[in-house]
Amino acid sequence: MKITHTEIPEVILIEPQVFRDERGFFLESYHRQKYRDAGIDAEFVQDNHSRSQRGTLRGLHAQINRPQGKLIRVLAGEIFDVAVDVRRGSPTFRQWVGAWLSADNFRQIYVPPGFVHGFCVTSEVAEVEYKCTDFYDPTSEISVQWNDPELGITWPLDEIAEPILSKKDLLGKPLEQLMDVLPWFEGERK
Question: Where in the sequence numbering do the catalytic residues fall?
Fold first, then answer.
C-alpha cells in the first residue's frame, strides 16, 4: 500500500494495493500490522456505514471527552473528505486538509483524534464506511460550522446551490465559539 502524509502529517492518505483480474478485484481494506507500520497505531472499536445523496454535507464533527480517530473509505460513489486540526497549541491548529475518496480510487484517509471531520457527496449517491477508535458519545460531540469563514474550507459545491445538512449541522458553531472545550495539542510530531 502507498502511504502519503498530508500537509498535516498526522492525517494520512492510504492507497491500498488492488489486485484486478477478469473476475473483478481484491484488496485488503485493513491490516493491523501494515497500518501500524505506516504510523496508524490505533485500536478500532466501532464501524459506521452511511449512505447519502448528492449535495449532502456531513460535518464538521468531533467528540471532546471520547475523541475518535477515524479511518474512512468509500464503498460506492465519491466524496470530498475534510479534516481540521482543532488541537489548541498545535502547529497546524485551524488548518484543514481535503482528499477525494471514491469507490473507484479505493483511497482511505486516517483522521486522528483532535480533528473535526466531515465530507460532502459529489456523486449521485455515496456509501461511506469508517472505523472509529472510540464509541459514539452524543453528549461529547461538537459540531463546527461547515462554512466557518475563519477556516476557509474550499468545498466542491460549484454545481450545488445549497448543501443538504442535518439539523445538527445547521446548528454548527464557528470554531471560535468552541475554544473553551477544544483539546490541547499533546506530544511532538513524529
Answer: 61, 130
